[in-house]
Design goal:
mainly alpha; 434 Repressor (Amino-terminal Domain); transcription regulation; transcription; DNA binding; Lambda_DNA-bd_dom_sf; Cro/C1-type_HTH
Length: 117
């Protein structure tokens, strides 16, 4: 299969026909097309929440200078679960969010409570 790379500084231009079709679309038609295309649809509130949690968790882990395996081991979280959370594939449940908030606020206290992990 032949492949090629697009130059981000010189993107392909739409054809004259495509340009005319696009210019003739109303806002309502654009909204309808976007809503029908799951790849172009805006993210849901749940997706946005997962992304916020993922970013916050990754920043916490990096602030504590741990890689994923070290963080997961230290705080007794399955590595696969941590990866799912950080990659926004899954959201932590309420108890896990509370646990992460305690780790964020008092990591040394969590270490002591876990026996020095």
């Amino acid at each position: 299969m032949a492949t090629f790379e697009l130059d981000p500084l010189d993107p392909p231009r739409p054809s004259a026909e495509a340009s005319r079709r696009l210019a003739g679309l109303t806002e309502e038609a654009i909204d309808a097309l976007q809503a029908s295309d799951t790849d172009a649809a805006p993210p849901s509130d749940a997706m946005l929440e997962r992304a916020v949690v993922a970013r916050r968790l990754k920043r916490l882990r990096e602030r504590l200078n741990f890689n994923q395996v070290e963080f997961a081991t230290r705080y007794r979280i399955p590595v696969a679960t941590l990866r799912d959370w950080e990659q926004a594939r899954r959201s932590p449940d309420a108890p896990a969010l509370a646990y992460l908030a305690v780790i964020e606020a008092e990591p040394e206290a969590v270490d002591r409570a876990l026996g020095g992990a």
